[in-house]
Amino acid sequence: MSHKREEKGYIAVTTCKACGACRDVCDRDALVFEGERVIRIDYDRCNLCMKCVKVCKNGALIYVE
What we know:
two-stranded antiparallel sheet, 15% helix, 26% strand
C-alpha cells in the first residue's frame, strides 16, 4: 500500500474533522480511516480524480504537485 505518489503529485492529509464527505464521494475506497477520520490515501486504489479534495470543506485534503 503506497502512502505517496511522487511522479504524479499526491493528496496530503492534514487535520481531518471527520465530516464524512470524502468517504461519500470516493468510489475506489482509496481513503484509509482511523475511526471516522481519514489518515492517509491508498495510492494503489487512488486515481487522483480529486473528488475528495473538492468536497473537503475543512481543507484537510490538499493536492500537492
